[in-house]
TrEMBL record:
Annotated region (Disordered), positions in chain: 34-62, 79-112
SMART domains: FA58C, Zn_pept
Composition bias, Polar residues: 34-61
Species the sequence originates in: Phocoena sinus
Single biological process term from Gene Ontology: proteolysis
Taxonomic lineage from the root: Eukaryota, Metazoa, Chordata, Craniata, Vertebrata
Role, per record: May be involved in cell-cell interactions. No carboxypeptidase activity was found yet.
Protein name (database record): Probable carboxypeptidase X1
Localization per Swiss-Prot or TrEMBL: Secreted
Designated gene of the protein: CPXM1
Record's keyword terms, sorted: Carboxypeptidase, Disulfide bond, Glycoprotein, Hydrolase, Metal-binding, Metalloprotease, Protease, Secreted, Signal, Zinc
Residue numbers annotated as active site: E589 (proton donor/acceptor)
Length: 731
């Protein structure tokens, strides 16, 4: 095994040297204004690194001497290295760098132990401590990997832990509460739209009592190791410890940071549990599930293989099909689950779950893969709840709407993907802003008094610009739109990650350019019901002791919010689904952590299992029926179902069947179709389970009967002739 010792000469100006963005870099961090923290044992100045810096095209030319030790043989090599110009770094004292304080790093850094849980909130706020904080909003409880700040700096929800500027020896401390095998650290800088702050190097210390501390040591020298940290605010940087340590407490001690900035960081700790045979400490919560399912992250090939296995295990209730391809040619696979897969049964509603619209939000993808396994297994066992669900409903599960983005995120790994990498499709398009904006033409028509007489309040057509060949529409978006138009979906949920809340339409604010504004649909009551059902049966959302994920506490709203009142999203799939089809769709933000570690999937499944099932069952809420021709008893397709007092209609499927989601109450419902007299009846929705039957028989108008007779070459009956004459006389 080759070991590298790189020591940098300390003269002004000194320059940082990096071995790569993976975090496997060696640090000689300084700048013209650089100072470094004093160490307990000052090391002699080193002359083993000779740096000559120039500046050409934004790069500095450095001649670096590398000392390579192999089998006690010392070899001196000289090479020329070009590195980009780096921002100046600030720390606390004069520069002192020596070979003894450089860090022996493995050739490849990969997480071994799982995360302790700073990002996922398994580590509570009172387990975090710090030497100082600039404000409460920059306290140690904010030093969590990927935590996001609010819009205002200086509020209670800032984007990192930041030590006071006068703090000479800053540190961030985590209490694991049990003896723990610490193996590595992941760090980020401060999340802020106003400031740039990040730590560029740090030391690590450990303790069992928070009083006596020892440091992480360099293997070759035995001196305190200095770990390279960040060069930008957002990219996670992993450092594995030279020697894993067993302790209860761990401290990160920033040594240098961006010049002009502050000592600010966000972190995750990699740690494995340690056995406690004597029971000296409280029992560590075990993240388990009673379901024997495949709890791991699946890339594209593994996902396809798993879906095939479920189909082979339950061939009578499953069908795997593709709705299209991604920009890179990966198929968008759907798992259909029903007692009659492959066909629409009259009177049976269609529901869907969509996940992975943002490729780095991986939990929804895994939950749908777990759900299809669970439904298959429980159906074979004869579980009555699952059996009824699959015999009375046709379920479609799309686990990965953006497979290209997911593959990017998957390659980075759950802890190193950061907040945004893999979010967009391969073209750089955010799919949740890529659907046609139907809100604006509807609202303009409403303002002009054209709705619903001239402009319908439902099934709005695609705008002309959106259908042009050069329109910026992702292939994934086009595939989903065709899917929506092909199947008469009634209910849907779009699974996201990064928060714990359910948001419902409208997602776009009605006031142009408003960042946020309450913008309800005519079906506000239904959407609040649907959102509350999911939030109310989700274990994590219902935990009274949970803290907010980032900068908003949604628990005070019952963990639901109108999408536009949160932040405006033009071109969202939720709004498009509501205005272009019959389908009511909400967005479920499943977890604070967009890409949870595999060892957290069991708990996340338990958090969401009942909510996923209960939400599907809400398709039975409201009224349902068939609109038929009175004479022939044939179902009438595209008949309009209107409810008095709700300015949004739905239409019948090709067999004449329909479903209208409504909350309990009394309603006046009208069915109408071209060529028929409209019919109206009262329908009462109760709290009892199951849709209330509300069927209609429509009579053809005389004109329609005449058209059909003339088209068939038949004579006009006398009664119809007399009615037509009376109508002409009235006119």
């Amino acid at each position: 095994m080759w070991g590298l010792l790189l020591a940098l000469a300390t003269f002004a100006p000194a320059v940082g040297v990096s071995l790569g963005a993976s975090g496997a870099s060696v640090l000689g961090l300084a700048s013209p204004a650089t100072t470094e923290a004093p160490v307990s044992t000052p090391a002699p100045r080193s002359s083993q690194a000779e740096l000559s810096a120039g500046n050409k095209n934004g790069t500095s030319e450095q001649h670096v001497r590398i000392r390579v030790i192999k089998k006690k043989k010392i070899i001196m090599k000289k090479r020329k290295k070009l590195t980009p110009s780096r921002p100046p770094v600030t720390a606390r004292a004069s520069v002192t760098t020596s070979p003894a304080r450089t860090l022996d790093l493995p050739e490849k850094q990969e997480p071994d132990c799982p995360p302790l849980g700073l990002e996922s909130l398994r580590v509570s706020d009172n387990q975090l401590d710090a030497s100082s904080s600039q404000s409460f909003g920059l306290g140690p409880h904010r030093g969590r990997l990927n935590i996001q700040s609010g819009l205002e700096d200086g509020d209670l929800f800032d984007g990192a832990w930041c030590a006071e500027r006068q703090d000479a020896e800053p540190w961030l401390q985590v209490d694991a509460r049990h003896p723990t095998h610490f193996s590595g650290i992941i760090t980020q800088g401060r999340n802020s739209i106003w400031r740039y702050d990040w730590v560029t190097s740090y030391k690590v210390q450990f303790s069992n009592d928070s009083l006596t501390w020892w440091g992480s040591k360099n293997r070759s020298s035995g001196m305190d190791a200095v770990f390279p940290a960040n060069s930008d605010p957002e990219t996670p940087v992993l450092n594995l410890l030279p020697e894993p340590q067993v302790a209860r407490f761990i401290r990160l001690l920033p040594q240098t940071w961006l010049q002009g900035g502050a000592s600010c960081l966000r972190a995750e700790i990699l740690a494995c549990p340690v056995s406690d045979p004597n029971g000296l400490f409280p029992e560590v919560p075990v993240l388990e599930s009673s379901d024997t399912l495949d709890f791991r992250h699946h890339d594209y090939k593994a996902m396809r293989k798993l879906m095939k296995q479920v189909n082979e295990q339950c061939p009578n209730i499953t069908r795997v099909y593709s709705i299209g391809k991604s920009h890179q040619g990966l198929k968008l696979y759907v798992m259909e689950m029903s007692d009659q897969p492959g066909e629409h049964e009259l009177g049976e509603p269609e529901v869907r779950y969509v996940a992975g619209m943002h490729g780095n939000e991986a939990l929804g993808r895994e939950l749908l893969l777990l759900l299809m396994q669970f439904l298959c297994r429980e159906f074979l066992r004869g579980d009555p709840r699952v059996t009824r669900l699959l015999t009375e409903t046709r379920i479609h599960l799309l686990p990965s709407m953006n497979p290209d983005g997911y593959e990017t995120a998957f390659r980075r790994g759950s802890e190193l993907v950061g907040w945004a990498e893999g979010r967009w499709n391969h073209q750089g398009i955010d799919l949740n802003h890529n659907f046609a904006d139907l809100n604006t033409p509807l609202w303009e028509a409403e303002d002009d008094g054209l709705v619903p007489d001239t402009v319908p309040n439902h099934h709005l057509p695609l705008p002309t610009y959106y259908t042009l060949p050069n329109a910026t529409v992702a292939p994934e978006t086009r595939a989903v739109i065709k899917w929506m138009e092909r199947i008469p979906f009634v209910l849907s949920a779009n699974l996201h990650g990064g928060e714990l809340v359910v948001s419902y339409p409208f997602d776009m604010t009605r006031t142009p350019w408003a960042a946020r504004e309450l913008t309800p649909t005519p079906d506000e009551a239904v959407f609040r019901w649907l959102s509350t059902v999911y939030a109310g049966t989700n274990w994590a959302m219902q935990d009274p002791d949970r803290r907010p994920c980032h900068s908003q506490d949604f628990s005070s709203y019952g963990n639901i919010i109108n999408g536009a009142d949160w932040h405006t999203v033009p071109g969202s799939m939720n709004d498009f689904s509501y205005l272009h089809t019959n389908c009511f769709e909400v967005t479920v933000e499943l977890s604070c952590d967009k890409f949870p570690h595999e060892n957290e999937l069991r708990q996340e499944w338990e958090n969401n299992k009942d909510a996923l099932l209960t939400y599907l069952e809400q398709v039975r809420m409201g009224i349902a029926g068939v609109v038929r021709d009175k004479d022939t008893e044939i179902g009438i397709a595209d008949a309009v179902i209107a409810v008095d007092g709700i300015n949004h209609d739905v239409t019948t499927a090709w067999g004449g069947d329909y479903w209208r989601l409504l909350t309990p109450g009394d309603y006046v419902v009208t069915a109408s179709a071209e060529g028929y007299h409209a019919a109206t009846r009262n329908c009462r929705v109760t709290f009892e389970e199951g849709p209330v039957p509300c069927n209609f028989h429509l009579t053809k108008t005389p004109k329609q009967r005449l058209r059909e007779l003339l088209a068939a070459g038949a004579k006009v009956p006398p009664d119809l002739r007399r009615r037509l004459e009376r109508l002409r006389g009235q006119n």
